[in-house]
From TrEMBL:
Transmembrane segments: none annotated. SUPFAM superfamilies: F-box domain (SSF81383). It holds the Pfam family F-box. Residues 49-89 form the F-box domain. This is F-box domain-containing protein.
Length: 426
């Protein structure tokens, strides 16, 4: 044999061993991979996600669903009560609450499309609900007063704060003898600022009062200590009208003077303190005396005060946002053409007294949801205007045209400790 051929069997055997060894390594690797597949995968779980990323994921859920599943873990529960994170959680509006001003009129709801129909906005869960008069609405909570019932039962509490979404309610203690109709009451609740609510009680101006004499003394109820506190206004003017509560500041509109009174109530815990106050001038153009029916509307959106006003001819509506913390300024966000929406270019008429009447008036608007709710004079219909599509559709026709109380309602599904810890204070 040649030297090369003598090494042949050895090479073949070596080759066979290497082949068997390779098959063994491949089989071992395959079995290990199958074993890893059968083991629980160690993927990224919630504890490894940052808070902002987790909130960004949860913000895709409706607030009602989030509140239902927040008991999954402690972090979800913590997020639901954190104002910074809670600001990103969506809240879906239900519609427009309205009620006639006469005695024992039921509370109605003009529902928005795809709204939650399970919410009892008639307040049937509140004792003697058919005697309730809707007074104010603030970020999901409602303030009501009993009409006529206290005439025969003076020991019954005259006011109640309730949450239709959770069916919780709480009687407010008496402050002093007299009818609640003698006062202008305001409900203040902002879950992004505090889990407690406040009720302002301003005495109404009587006919015997001089016009230039302001009523600057009022009372504040706090759900934190369940007590009423007395306080004073520094402004030399009496304010009234629609109100909004944003981050501890109460904004009360005074449409006749085209300004808003801003009152910071964070320090309103004792009877000797004055609230910090300032006035904010409204944008737009002053309307002449004969066109009071063309006034604007103050609202809030994304925690910012907003203002909408139609022009004198009614053909255009502008919406501003109040921006800037130190130097407050109004910035135009939308300029809406109402001619195309209504399909006609005459949107103002004059009555027999010479006063101007717009064919529509602003009931509410929500920039986050891209909607404006209007009322139409003559037909008394509720109309829904979509800002992005510029389309106008009928929302509902009320059962009566004599409406005094109309509130934009966005439900709040979280339970408040103020309700669970309170007792019957009648």
């Amino acid at each position: 044999m040649s030297p090369g051929s003598s090494r042949g069997p050895s090479c073949l055997s070596c080759f066979g061993w290497n082949l068997r060894s390779g098959r063994h390594r491949l089989m071992t690797a395959f079995l290990r991979s199958k074993q890893r597949d059968m083991e629980p995968k160690k993927e990224i779980t919630m504890p490894f996600l940052t808070d902002d990323l987790l909130v960004e994921i949860l913000s895709r859920l409706p607030l009602k669903s989030f509140c239902r599943f927040k008991c999954v873990c402690k972090s979800w529960l913590a997020f639901s009560s954190d104002p910074h994170h809670g600001q990103k959680l969506p809240r879906t509006p239900v519609g427009l609450l309205y009620q006639r001003c006469d005695y024992r009129s039921p509370i109605h709801l003009a529902r928005l499309p795809s709204s939650d129909s399970k919410i009892d906005t008639a307040l049937r869960f509140v004792p003697t609900y058919d005697h309730l008069r809707l007074m104010d609405c603030s970020n999901g909570l409602l303030l009501c007063c009993y009409e006529g019932l206290t005439r025969y039962f003076p020991d019954v509490s005259r006011s109640v704060v309730c949450n239709p979404a959770t069916q919780e309610w709480m009687f407010l203690p008496h402050t002093q003898p007299g009818s609640d109709s003698d006062y202008h009451v305001v409900l203040c609740f902002d879950p992004l600022w505090s889990q407690h609510f406040y009720v302002f009680k301003f005495q109404k101006r009587r006919l015997s009062h001089p016009v230039d004499k302001p009523i600057n003394e009022f009372e504040i109820f706090s759900s934190q200590d369940l007590l009423w506190h007395s306080s004073l206004l520094e402004m030399e003017i009496g304010f009234h009208g629609r109100s909004h509560f944003i981050h501890g500041v109460l904004y009360i509109e005074h449409s006749l003077d085209r300004c808003v009174l801003a009152m910071e109530i964070a320090a309103a815990t004792t009877s000797t303190q004055l609230l910090k106050q300032r006035t904010i001038q409204l944008p737009g153009i002053p309307m002449p005396e004969m066109s009071r029916r063309c006034c604007g509307y103050v609202a809030q959106s994304s925690g910012v005060l907003c203002y909408a006003q139609q022009e004198l001819d009614g053909c255009t509506m502008q919406i501003w946002r109040l921006e800037g913390s130190s130097s407050e300024r109004w910035v135009v966000k939308h300029r809406l053409n109402m001619i195309d929406a209504f399909g006609r270019d005459v949107l103002v008429h004059t009555d027999s007294s010479g006063s101007l009447w717009s064919n529509y008036y602003i009931l509410a608007f929500d920039l986050d949801r891209d909607v404006v709710i209007l009322g139409e004079h003559g037909t008394w219909k509720f109309l829904l205007f979509t800002i992005s599509t510029k389309k106008l559709s009928e929302l509902q026709t009320p059962t009566t045209c004599e409406l005094s109380y109309k509130f934009y309602y966005v439900p709040y599904y979280c339970k408040l400790s103020s309700f669970s810890a309170s007792m019957d204070l009648r």
